[in-house]
Each structure stands twice: as C-alpha cells, then as structure tokens.
Specification:
Cytochrome Bc1 Complex, Chain A, domain 1, 6-stranded mixed beta sheet, 5-stranded mixed beta sheet, 14 helices, globular
Length: about 425
C-alpha cells in the first residue's frame, strides 16, 4: 500500500505535507506547533490549555461571534487544542473554501486578543469540567494513576486542564505571556488532505500561515525524562455515592519512536484489546464477571506514556479484580503467547491501516505520525512487514522489560476503602 504526498517548507519554518484525494469534495487540515502543557509553571497548571482555548475566541480582525458566523456560513470547522507536548490546530471545509479556512486558521494562531469577557467564560467552563471530572470514578482513577506513576513534579503527572485550585489563579497576563513566549513554528508541521492541488495549497499557505513569524525565539527547555517507579504505589480515592469503582494499574511503557513500541503494540493487542479486551477482558469481565469493562492501553507518544490496565468494577469485587489482572500480567510476562493469538493480533493491526486510509482524516493522522515520529516516507509500505516480523519471544522480553506485578502504580476511585 502506497500513499503519494508532496512536502514543502513554509517561510516561517513550518513543514507542509499535502496528500491529494479527488474522490471527495472536502479538505482537512491539521498541524502541530511547539508549546504544550508540559511548559505549564507548577503553580499555574492548566495555563497552556486555558491559553489555547482562547485563541479562537477573538482576534485583531474578528470577535468570537464574527469568527463563528464566518465559519458556519460555509459549513466549515476550525479548532485549536492543547496537547502535552504541542499545540494542535486545524479544521475542515469544502475544497472550494480552503482559502478562507487557511485565513481563519492563520488569524486564530497569529493574532488572538484574549478578550477579558471570553477569559471568564472559558474559566467558568473549565471549572465546570473539572468539577464533573472530580465526580467521575474513571476520571479520578486516571488522574491519580498518572500522579502516582510520574509524580506531579513531572509534566506527565499533571492534568492538562489544570485543577480546581490552579485555574482560578491564572490571569490574562499569564495567558498573553505564555502565548508570546512559548508558541512557535520551529519544528512544527501542517498537513492538508483532500480535493486540492498540492502546489495551490503551498501557495495559499505560504501567503497566509507562512507569513506568521513569532517574534520570540523557540523555547529551548527540554522535557525531563520520567523516573521509573522503584516500589509499588497505590492510592484509593473514596467516592461513597457511586455504584461503580474504577481502577488503573500499570507502568511506564515505551515512547512511540522506541524500537520496542511495535512489539509492545502487538503484545498489548493480545493482552487487552482483541475482542472485548483481550486476555484481561476475558479473565476479569467474561470469566470473573467482576467488571463492566476491562482493557489495556499503550499510550506512548513523543515521550514514554503509560502501559496500563483500566477497568470499571463492581465495588465488592475490586480486590479480586486486581488479583485477576496481576495474574494475567504475570502469565503474559512468564509464558509465550500462542500462535493463534499472535496471528490474530497481527491480522488486526495490519488490517487497521488500510481502513484508516479510506478517509481524509485517517490519511492526515497517519501523515502526522510519520512526520512527528520520523518514521520515514515509506512507512506505510513497510508497516505490515514491521508488524509481521514480531515474534513471541520478543513480546515476552518487552513484557518483562516494561510490565511488573511487583512494582506498579494502582489507583482506585469509587465506593471502596480497602
């Protein structure tokens, strides 16, 4: 399977990748810029996310209401979001409206005004979201799991959206200063996929987004390497008014560009993805009848994300569910997976990519991964052979390297006090 795309460089340093698809009348755009939540000051957690939420809420040319009217008139969409490492942006429109889409995206990125009234609206919405999260067993289990695994001294251990304590402390000056000091085009990328011509896209973006030149230098600080746990870390967050308990149990896994990632991906598919949750789901949910859901997640990105099990459990069965999960992890570490499991996992993973490439959004997501993780322009063609080369012995070795039944983080939230 091959995908044709063209690569350019805009005047401000942004890489541009364009894939033409003339079978659809739409175009999708997505990009990444330096400046994410990992740059939040410790006393202003949530600052980057707060700032990014405001970038579409008023510019030097248009108010929030005017921007919405312009975008809705052509049935388009524009967004700016905050990630841990980078700020993401993009949108979607009919191909004929791509020029307008490029202008609005550029406007939101290059000239936000951070209106005071919009700041307070976003603050109120964020506080409401955080209160809802505080009332969610899944949300609290995930939050405390990250805190245990990475500690709040590391950016991966802190919530992107901030806390009920930090968000009220963020001022307009904080927002403006973060924007002026951190958001940058250096090493950034923009991807365009759809019913467009590559050269026209380049010329359009060069005249719009390519003219945005941040006046500050790119941030030079480096993401600290998270330290692995040296002993078991456990936290229980009692929520007596709930009927379900949620838990998260796991360790730090590989980064997306780590050589172990593909091996771990095949293994994770077997451990907690196939069907209704792989081995974990079959053991805890189907056979044990203790969980409403039980699955695994391998979340490596630009840094080493968690490799963990998450489950929604009957409160009276929490201890037993943990025992079953640890038993499955132990078996995964100590015994080779079966030929049948390996074949199923490989078929599943190699089958996903062709399906993903059937949509503009899927092509865009793949091209972003290729660029961000430097996978090589021939990655799509090589991907099946990468997955099919994974062996049972390699899966066992990777499981023993990253997963443990002795040293792990465990967070439990719900009507449980054990």
């Amino acid at each position: 399977m091959n995908l044709k795309f063209n690569k350019y460089n805009l005047a401000n340093g942004l890489a541009l990748i364009v894939a033409e698809n003339h079978h659809a009348q739409s175009v999708v755009v997505s990009g990444r810029l330096q400046g994410g939540a990992w740059l939040d000051p410790l006393d202003k957690i949530g600052l980057a996310d707060f700032m990014v939420d405001l970038m579409r809420r008023g510019t030097t040319k248009h108010t929030f209401s005017q921007l919405n009217d312009i975008i809705e008139e052509v049935a388009a969409s524009v967004y700016v979001d905050c990630g841990r490492h980078m700020t993401t942006f993009g949108g979607k429109s009919l191909a004929e409206d791509f020029g307008l889409l490029a202008e609005i995206v550029t406007e939101c990125l290059s000239s936000p005004t951070f209106p005071t009234e919009e700041i307070e609206k976003v603050r109120g919405q964020t506080m409401t979201h955080l209160k809802q999260l505080a009332d969610s067993t899944r949300g609290m289990a995930d939050r405390h799991f990250r805190e245990l695994l990475y500690t709040t001294n590391h950016p991966y251990g802190r919530p992107i959206t901030g806390t009920l304590e930090s968000v009220p402390q963020i001022t307009r000056d904080d927002l403006v200063n973060f924007y002026q000091q951190n958001l940058h085009t250096q090493n950034g990328v923009v991807i365009v996929v759809g019913d467009v011509h590559s050269q026209t896209v380049y010329e359009t973006l060069e005249a719009t987004l390519g003219q945005w030149q941040p006046i500050h230098p790119a941030p030079q600080t480096a993401m600290p390497t998270p330290l692995p746990l040296t002993e078991k870390a456990r936290r229980v967050h009692p929520m007596k008014n709930k009927s379900q308990a949620d838990l998260a149990l796991g360790c730090i896994g590989p980064s997306r560009d780590d050589a172990d990632f593909y091996i771990a991906s095949v293994g994770d598919t077997i451990l907690g993805q196939l069907g209704l949750g792989g081995r974990i789901g079959q053991s805890v949910r189907d056979e044990g009848g203790m969980a409403y859901y039980a699955r695994t997640q391998l979340s490596g990105g630009l840094g080493p994300g968690p490799w963990y099990v998450y489950a929604g459990v009957n409160p009276i069965s929490v201890d037993k569910a943990i025992e079953f999960i640890l038993t499955e992890i132990r078996r995964f570490r100590d015994e080779l997976v079966t030929d049948h499991e390996l074949a199923d996992a490989k078929a599943y993973l190699t089958g996903i990519l062709p399906l993903q490439m059937e949509t503009n959004e899927g092509v865009l997501s793949t091209l972003l991964d290729i660029h961000l993780y430097q996978l090589g322009d021939d990655f799509i063609a090589r991907y099946p052979s990468i997955i099919n080369a994974v062996t049972k012995e390699e899966i066992m070795a990777v499981a023993q390297k990253y997963l443990s039944t002795e040293v792990y983080a465990l967070s439990i939230a719900g009507p449980y006090e054990g």
